[in-house]
Amino acid sequence: MAYITGSACFYGREFIVDESVLVPRPETEHLVDEAVAFLRGLGTAGRVLDVGTGSGAIACTIAAETNAVVDATDVSPEAVALAARNAERLAIGGRCRFLCGDLAAPVKGERYDVVVANLPYVPTADLPAGPDSTSFEPRVALDGGPDGLTVYRALLRGIADHVTAKAMVLLEAAPPTIERLIELTQNSLRNSTVTIGNDYAGLARYVKGTLK
Questions:
Q1: What is the pTM of this model?
Q2: What is the pLDDT of residues 144-156, one digit of tens each?
Q3: Cα angle for residues 177, 200, 69 (degrees, 5° grid)
Q4: 96-100 and 112-117: which strand pairing?
Q5: CA max distance for the chain
Q6: Cβ-contact 162, 111 below 8 angstroms
Q7: 13-16 and 7-10 as β-strands: parallel, antiparallel, unpaired?
């Protein structure tokens, strides 16, 4: 339905969507909650990196809810262009920068107070097929490889180079993959506390890593 109407609601705001991006999910609002609360406690505006931004829902919402400066990346040029349109519509384009490239490669050398990612996390064997409505969403935004964590492994290999000394990292994933994602996060951010966050249904939905 979102693709038919060309819009979807996320965190109380309307976002333009099309077949080049995932439709924003209510579960992802928890990542925004965590990021906003953390940024408000910093005492400064803060810098945020949204990896795999898609429609820009996470990046735009964090910018709208705080004074943070947000960089967002996506491998899809169409997604980057759409996210920039959403930022302009919400009048926060001046604090959001959208960059095309693989994961954090476009922001090499930059460090952030918050890194948030909702990357492909569906195991390849579990990808939806028609007539399931989610089968119309872009495969590149869904396919997380054999165990659903291929893309997260690639991000986490270099995540320590993109965080400040007391940063927060937020990663959304499928409930069956959470325990393994915790291990990967702990191995990549050794001086951190890593916990699980639940979604509205009470399912393990995201990992939160806070550097000490």
A1: 0.94
A2: 999 999 999 999 9
A3: 80
A4: unpaired
A5: 49
A6: yes
A7: antiparallel
Specify whether the CB–CB gap between 155 and 209 falls below 8 A: no
Contact 173, 148 (CB under 8 A): yes
Burial group, residue 94, by CB count within 10 angstroms (0-12, 13-18, 19+): exposed
Round to whole Å and give the CA distance between 74 and 119: 10
Average pLDDT score over residue span 67-82: 97
As a whole number of angstroms, the distance between CA 65 and CA 36 comes to: 7
CA gap 28, 177 in Å, rounded: 16
Half-sphere exposure of 108 (CA within 13 A, CB side): 5
CA distances from 111 to 62, 140, 166 (A): 17, 26, 11
Task: Residue 25: name the closest of 179, 173, 196 by CA.
Answer: 173
Sign, Cα dihedral of 76, 181, 58, 70? negative
pLDDT, one tens digit per residue, over 88-102 is 999 999 999 999 999
Contact (Cβ atoms closer than 8 angstroms) between residue 207 and residue 178: yes
- Given a contact cutoff of 8 angstroms between Cβ atoms, the answer to whether 184 and 204 are in contact is no
Q: Which amino acid, one-letter code, is at 143?
A: D
